[in-house]
Protein 1
Amino acid sequence: MPKPDNPNCHGIEDCPNNFGPDAANYEKSRSQYPSALASDVLIAAALPLNASLLEIGSGTGRATRLFTGRGYDITYIEPLAEMATVA
């Protein structure tokens, strides 16, 4: 993750402080998002069922999993291979 005090950190390859190398531990130790979060987002967005969703920077898929099984087609993009593997 970019550090606010590092103006030279423009992407994951420039910034050594990302979770990629420790993706499995990140997934294991990070708390889950509340399931109501997905409901709140979907209500606020007023999306019809079967809408296609795009998530950019999905990490290990924690938020993505909140939306699965709710009738939406989800495409997610994760630039860190280690995080995408866990997802």
Protein 2
Amino acid sequence: MSVDIANMIPPTVMLTLLAAITIHDIRHQRIPDILTVALALAGVLASAGGYAPPPPQAIAGALLGLALTWLVRSAYFRACGQHGLGLGDVKLTAACGFWLGPRGIGLMLLVATSAAIFWLVLRHLTAGRPLTRKTALPFAPWLALGAMVSYLIMG
């Protein structure tokens, strides 16, 4: 059984960048643009090299991820008067779109939001803390989980 190292490089790069983004978001409640840009550029290269959806689909995935999360961010702000989704999360979703294409973005967001809601409910039940509109949750870890699940299933 032979292992093709070249096929392992793109998902390893993606996973490494998502891990760095996750750790930073957990520690600082912020996603550095440099990591998001690196993830996006790596996704563009992966697309051009045939390790992600073809370039037109990669661009469509990035635009769809940007549009969907921007819409959620804007709607929440209009409804609640505060931002429930940070710009870093919006940019991260767009960057993942280069890796996943439009089909993968939907799965990514479904996994991310489902896992985050499950975690919040579990935390509420075990810690007894009430869930409110002000309950903060770093969302990058959940987006990263969703991106990797989607990449593995769709790729």
